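Project outcomes to date are best conveyed with an example. Our students and postdoctoral researchers have been running inverse folding experiments weekly, and each run begins with a structure described purely in tokens. The record below, which covers 309 residues, was selected by the lab manager from last quarter's runs and is presented without edits.
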């Protein structure tokens, strides 16, 4: 089932953590198992890393804190060895970390080097993007990660109901388009040619953290952006290349887009005003944000829409 949501503020940063939480919590019935956010702020010169050192459902027990501390020390050591200047690092949960670094090297090299540490999973890397996701509903994740103060220009979010895979972090959305900076995707539906595209992208040198088809969409789009294609065109290509029933949202450092397949069976409603663009799987989520009844529309089959932030 699952629920997706997206927001763009055209008049500057807003309380993105609280706003996306209101939308996602209103769709808890579509997915109580995990909640995830991709927040975008105005780019700066520092690289932000969001990473996990253990699965949430594995955390705890005798000696676990010492294990996490050793892993964190290894992360800091490897950052120094690769030439990254660590500015800040902290954890809200004991197993999930946020670091800011000065680094002008290759992101793939950095991500691979960190993920070679047992238990380490890089959720996002970039100058604008931060991905936060965990088990539980949106209110729980908001409180756990202190997201009420998170500000941003735009963002996307996802609530998940586990139907075909485990309730774990690896299956939670959004997905970062490893190793491309600042590209993330949330998705409702299923790609029936998932394995074909996974093999193609793996042959091109990409690796995947999960078995989720949303990660395929993210890397596919990011690869086309890297080749010089604009986002709207890349998304139109995806409608011909991907089989299945799906609606997805993609965000970059300065754009947000939506696409629906030719069946248009997976719901999405859209509201747009002079200073706000907001979209969600259900209208109740839009009302939860704007606080009133508004006129919305449902994008058509094979429709692609993009907005510049």
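After processing, the design step wrote out the following sequence:
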């Amino acid at each position: 089932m699952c629920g997706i949501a997206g927001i763009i503020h055209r008049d500057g940063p807003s309380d993105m953590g609280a706003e996306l939480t209101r939308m996602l919590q209103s769709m808890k019935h579509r997915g109580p198992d995990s909640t995830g956010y991709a927040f975008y702020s105005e780019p700066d010169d520092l690289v932000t890393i969001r990473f996990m050192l253990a699965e949430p459902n594995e955390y705890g027990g005798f000696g676990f804190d010492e294990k996490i501390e050793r892993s964190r020390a290894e992360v800091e050591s490897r950052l120094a060895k690769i030439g990254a200047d660590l500015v800040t690092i902290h954890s809200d949960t004991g197993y999930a970390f946020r670091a800011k670094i000065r680094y002008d090297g290759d992101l793939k090299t950095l991500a691979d080097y960190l993920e070679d540490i047992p238990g380490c999973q890089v959720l996002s890397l970039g100058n604008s993007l931060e991905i936060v996701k965990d088990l539980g509903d949106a209110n729980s994740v908001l409180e756990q990660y202190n997201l009420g103060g998170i500000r941003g220009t735009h963002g996307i979010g996802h609530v998940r109901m586990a139907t075909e895979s485990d309730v774990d972090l690896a299956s939670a959305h959004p997905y970062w388009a490893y190793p491309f900076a600042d590209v993330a995707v949330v998705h409702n539906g299923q790609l029936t040619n998932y394995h074909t595209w996974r093999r193609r992208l793996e042959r091109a040198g990409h690796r995947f953290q999960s078995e989720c088809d949303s990660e395929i969409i993210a890397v596919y789009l990011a690869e086309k952006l890297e080749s010089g294609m604009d986002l709207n065109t890349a998304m139109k290509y995806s409608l011909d290349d991907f089989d299945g029933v799906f609606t997805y949202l993609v965000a970059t450092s300065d754009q947000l887009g939506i696409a629906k397949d030719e069946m248009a069976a997976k719901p999405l409603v859209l509201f747009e005003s002079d200073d706000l663009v907001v979209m969600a799987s259900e209208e109740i989520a839009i009302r939860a944000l704007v606080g009133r009844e508004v006129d919305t529309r449902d994008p058509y089959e094979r429709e692609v829409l993009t907005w510049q932030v």
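Residues 33 and 242 are 27 Å apart (CA to CA). The chain has two domains: 3-43+128-308, 44-127. The training component of this project remains on track.
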